């Protein structure tokens, strides 16, 4: 039992170090390319959206030519990053509303909890798959929040905007950031949820419960 505990401890510590180093390296590689958004119309729209969501502590809004899609990064100093691409005002509204929803719900902290659970269960491939599903569910529940009470036309435009962003290119993402990245099956699932206003009910609660069970399960096994 002592040997098994030692093996588990080494694996958990190694997983935590590997994920931390990977995140810091990814963040430092992209940080050099960050610069503040200077477009006055975009900034005005951004502050209007923050006010509409009752966000008083507004995250930084930056641009970065190396990132493949809009994303939210930074646990202690949240920043919304936008790629240097041409967007319409409606596209900006969709993109910024989506990322602000992630910020308001503190989804990056959920992602940190998911990574912690994965460190605890580093030896279990089923948990790795479950954590991937939980990460997908974060995006789906965010989609549900953004399109809540929206018309069918607005929901369809939201889907079209996601497709346009995904078609612009691919790149590396960190587990501790949000982003408009999805595989084909996940994307189809997201669109089904977006177009069906009843399909995604309760998914956030289920996600939180699943992560909590997996995370606490590791400690139960060690006793």
Which short descriptors sum up this protein?
single chain
What does this structure look like?
By secondary structure, the protein is of the alpha+beta class. The C terminus is likely disordered. The chain is 64% helix and 7% strand. β3 and β4 form a beta hairpin. Strands 1-2-4-3 form a 4-stranded mixed beta sheet, covered by helices on one side. The N and C termini lie close together (11 Å). It has 8 helices and 4 strands, in the order αβαβββαααααα.
What secondary-structure arrangement, pairings included, does this model have?
Layout lengths: L1 H30 L2 E3 L3 H13 L7 E5 L6 E3 L5 E4 L6 H16 L2 H14 L4 H22 L5 H15 L17 H12 L7 H20 L1
Parallel strand pairs: 2-4
Antiparallel strand pairs: 1-2, 3-4
Helix pairs in contact: 1-4, 2-3, 3-5, 4-5, 4-8, 5-7, 5-8
Brief summary of the model shown:
This protein is an alpha+beta fold and 223 residues long.
Percent helix range: 55-70%
Helix tally equals 8
Which H/E pattern describes the elements?
Answer: HEHEEEHHHHHH
Class by SSE composition? alpha+beta
Unreliable segments (pLDDT under 50, ≥5 consecutive)?
Answer: 199-206, 218-223
Oligomer: single chain
Rg is: 19 Å
């Amino acid at each position: 039992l002592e040997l098994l505990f030692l093996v588990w401890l080494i694996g958990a510590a190694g997983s935590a170090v590997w994920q931390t180093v990977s995140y810091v390296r990814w963040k430092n590689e992209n940080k050099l390319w960050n610069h503040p958004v200077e477009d006055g119309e975009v900034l005005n729209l951004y502050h209007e959206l923050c006010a509409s969501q009752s966000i008083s502590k507004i995250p930084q809004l930056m641009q970065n030519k190396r990132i493949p899609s809009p994303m939210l990064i930074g646990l202690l100093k949240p920043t919304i990053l936008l790629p240097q691409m041409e967007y319409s005002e409606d596209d900006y509204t969709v993109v910024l509303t989506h990322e602000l929803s992630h910020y308001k719900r503190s989804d990056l902290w959920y992602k940190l909890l998911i990574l912690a659970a994965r460190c605890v269960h580093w030896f279990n491939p089923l948990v790795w798959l479950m954590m991937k599903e939980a990460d997908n569910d974060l995006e789906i529940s965010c989609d549900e929040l953004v399109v809540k009470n929206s018309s069918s036309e607005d929901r369809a435009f939201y889907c079209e905007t996601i497709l346009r962003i995904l078609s612009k290119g691919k790149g590396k993402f960190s587990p501790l950031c949000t982003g408009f990245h999805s595989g084909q099956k996940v994307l189809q699932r997201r669109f089904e949820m977006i177009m069906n206003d009843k399909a995604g009910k309760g998914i956030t609660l289920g996600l939180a419960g699943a992560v909590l069970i997996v995370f606490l399960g590791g400690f139960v096994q060690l006793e």
